[in-house]
Amino acid sequence: MKYCSQCGGPVQLAIPEGDNRERHVCDACGTIHYQNPNVVTGCIAEWEDKVLLCRRAIKPRYGYWTLPAGFLENGESAQQGALRETLEEANARVELLSLFATFNMPHISQIYMLFRARLLDLDFAPGEESLEVKLFSEQQIPWDELAFPVIGETLRLYFADRARGHFDSHVGDILRQPGSSLREYRVQMLGS
Amino acid sequence: MKYCSQCGGPVQLAIPEGDNRERHVCDACGTIHYQNPNVVTGCIAEWEDKVLLCRRAIKPRYGYWTLPAGFLENGESAQQGALRETLEEANARVELLSLFATFNMPHISQIYMLFRARLLDLDFAPGEESLEVKLFSEQQIPWDELAFPVIGETLRLYFADRARGHFDSHVGDILRQPGSSLREYRVQMLGS
Question: Do B27 and B42 fall within a single domain?
Answer without folding.
Answer: no
